[in-house]
Amino acid sequence: MPKIEHFAVGRCKDGLLQIMAIAGQADGEPQFADTIWLNRQVASSENKFADFAGNWLSIGGLSTPLPGIAMTSDLDGYLAVALSVGDNVMYSRQGSADGLWAEWESLGDPLNGAGGPHHPAGLGRNQDGRMEVFVTAGYSPAVWCRSQKQPASHDWNEWRSLGFPSGKGAVRAQPPTVARNKDGRLEVHLALGTDIWHTWQSRANHDQWVPWRSLGSPAAGVEVGWPTVITDRQGRLQLFASSGPAVWSRRQHAAGQAWDEWTMLPAEPGDGGAPKLAAGAQDDGRLVVFALRDKPDGKQSLQKLEQAADGHWTSDDAIDPTGDILGRPVIGAADNPAMVVDNLGRLRLICSLRTRAGAALTLGLFSLVQVEQGGSEWEETFQNIHAP
Asked: Most exposed residue of 56, 264, 279, 307, measured as fewest CB within 10 angstroms of its CB?
């Protein structure tokens, strides 16, 4: 079977979740070409509990897609995705509430054939509902963006450059992290070397962006991980990033305003390395972060950090996600954690599984979900979502 190389997950207008994944050649199975696959939740007869079906639906082979998919909902509540394929950026949108998707449309090459590396695309929604795509490209890199002329339109404005905080560290093959301020202004974040950099629209829905500015380094001289940004209960953007084995946070002082200083969260790194992070918001605005670490012994740890009602953070003991919880010999390693809210208002963590050294089996995805909406308890077993 093919292996899932990257995925994105979102909640449809009907409340059910959909996963879109790039699945390609698994170890020793060269017959599988890169293909885009879709998996949808199926509701029970009582429409209370929903889970993913065993069957994946192929929605087209795209030549050499880069390892990243960005997904968000549009103004009508339909999901939209963007991904980089070679020198082009591809875009698609659900065509109906039942989850059918429109044909892929090419947004072209932001470099207009000039050559240079292209990285995975990011995706955001303007306050007026127009989608906006972002991608880092070029030998002298810049973040490029392209926006719809009208919501749900197939007509797009031309690519334009937002520049780049050049000379500040090596460019990473990651999609720009896109968030939207409470007043509607889109904001883009990058990790370069030891610092997080950001730029934002001068006002909502506008083509003018402010020059790149640094949010600084959580820990002096230590490379910072790729940022995850989410909106808290006061409407402030809150950013999470690793710096070494620690998890750090920095948030706006007030919605859309200047940022407070970096704060280290109470995560016990133990002997683990720099974690990959996923963040989600409870229905009351309290935030939850999962930190997934590779350990020197080849195992992993997964730790949940949760915001209390007073805003302080607590952490659970770390577990081995593929050993302790699945209750079987460890045959895969978790990767690419993502968090989403399901049809019952519960947070759900989804990770891909990569092959460990010497493993004979490549799995697809696994999912862990809250027992109840807004609660601190999570199910003790993962659902396995096998690769196509």
From this structure: 264
334 Cβ contact list (under 8 Å, min separation 6): 292, 300, 302, 321, 322, 351, 352, 353, 354, 366
Burial class from Cβ neighbours inside 10 Å (0-12, 13-18, 19+) for residue 1 reads middle
Report the residue count for the chain. Answer: 388
pTM listed for this prediction:
0.91
Which of 173, 197, 198, 195 is closest to 185 using CA atoms?
A: 198
Measure the CA–CA gap between 29 and 181, rounded to whole angstroms.
Answer: 45
CA atoms within 13 A on the CB side of 130: 19
Tens-place pLDDT, residues 141-170 = 999 999 999 999 999 999 999 999 976 778
Q: How far apart are alpha carbons 112 and 128 in whole angstroms?
A: 28
Tokens of 221: 């001289």
Alpha carbons within 13 angstroms on the beta-carbon side of residue 61 total: 6
- In this predicted model, what pLDDT tens digit does every residue of 301-325 receive, in sequence order? 888 999 988 888 988 766 655 554 4
